[in-house]
Amino acid sequence: MSETPSPRHTALSLAASGVPVLPLRRGKVPFGNCTTCKDNACGGRPNMKTPGPCRCPGVCHAWAAATTDPAVIASPPWAAAWRRAVCVGYHPGGAGLTVVDLDNAAAIAWARESLPATRTVPTTRGQHWIYRGTVASRNAVRPGIDIKSAMAYARYLGSGTGALTAVPDVVRALAVKRPSAVRQAPHAAAVPAGSGGGECPHRTPAFLERGIAMAVQRITGARSAIHATVYGAFLAVLSTHGRCGCLTDTHVTRLFTAAQSKGETARHCTDAWTNARTTLGL
User: Fold this and answer.
1) pTM
2) How far is 146 from 104, CA to CA, in rounded Å?
3) Is residue 198 pLDDT above 80, yes or no?
4) Spatial distance between the Cα atoms of 273 and 208, rounded to a whole number of angstroms
5) What is the 3-state secondary structure (H, E, C) of 78-138?
6) Coil, strand, or helix at residue 255?
7) What is the C-alpha to C-alpha distance for residues 147 and 156, in angstroms, rounded to an integer?
8) Euclidean distance between CA atoms 40 and 225, whole angstroms
9) Angstrom distance (rounded) from CA 156 to CA 101
10) In what order do the strands lie in the sheet with 21-25?
11) How does pLDDT run across 231-274, given as a tens digit for each residue?
């Protein structure tokens, strides 16, 4: 009778196929940050492909630590974590995947009626339906249903059965959180930021300038959690001005420049801006 592969062995196999992995401890959760990274004091790690201000060799920052590098997986800090790990986690978005986590029979029944067939993996209480493509992650989109893709981790429970299909529109729609705080002018056109340039129809140019200046100050004044601060500032600007076409490339460049002065990369700035637009449904 064959032995069950160790979490580390499974992780190396997944990494070789391009799936970013991380060890999960008891409770099926990531390991906590080291003392240097505690409370994101290091500034965080933007994502597993873009190096950020954090250079910690340990298994810190949850999904953002997921890697496909066998040398990292076998390094001493990770080896110690693998010895304590109870299972393998992975970053679906980093592998170009979306996991629809169905937590009970009712959720599975809804999926069978509403979603196209795709690869399925049994879980302790339900199923994972895995699609090809990446969306924003969001919990509790329906009773017993979470969406795990970008900036999230999922537990690896086997290769499953069935062929991967593309993320359906219904899942993309469920992943978009539409905050009630977004103000939108009547009849304002949804013009993507960077292609506008006209006067904001619901605010004066001075109001826009003040908003950009405040966002820049918020970013440059941050002493910790830089990644989260940048994302929050982008979200604040877009929530007020993202739908009216008043944001220009000059405004966006000012925000990106402020973020890069704090150690963020151009790639991370683009990702944070895109994630903020996705969150707001822009």
Assistant:
1) 0.63
2) 11
3) no
4) 18
5) HHHHHHHCCEEEECCHHHCEEEEEECCHHHHHHHHHHCCCCEEEECCCCEEEEEECCCECE
6) helix
7) 15
8) 5
9) 12
10) 29-30, 21-25, 87-90, 154-155
11) 888 888 888 787 777 788 788 888 988 888 888 787 778 888 88
First to last CA, the chain: 54
Q: Residue 74 in contact with residue 63, Cβ under 8 Å?
A: no
* 181-207 burial code (b ≥16 CB/10 A, e <16): eeeeeeeeeebebeebeeebebbeeee
Q: Rounded distance, CA 116 to CA 166, Å?
A: 9
Mean model confidence pLDDT for the chain: 83
Q: Cα–Cα–Cα angle for 179, 185, 191, nearest 5°?
A: 80
| Lookup: tokens for 267 | 């790639």
Burial of residue 225 (CB within 10 Å: 0-12, 13-18, 19+) is middle
Burial class (CB in 10 A: 0-12, 13-18, 19+), 165: middle
Q: In which residue are the tokens 């062929």 written?
A: 163
Structure tokens at 34: 């080291």
**87-90/154-155 β-pairing:** antiparallel
User: How many of the other CB atoms lie within 10 Å of CB of 179?
Assistant: 10
Note the pLDDT tens digit of each residue in 68-124: 999 999 999 999 999 999 999 999 999 999 999 999 999 999 999 999 999 999 999
**Both tokens of residue 222?**
């941050």
Single-letter amino acid, residue 116: P
Amino acid identity of residue 163, one-letter, is A
For residue 199, what are the contacts with CB-CB under 8 A and spacing of at least 6? 205, 246
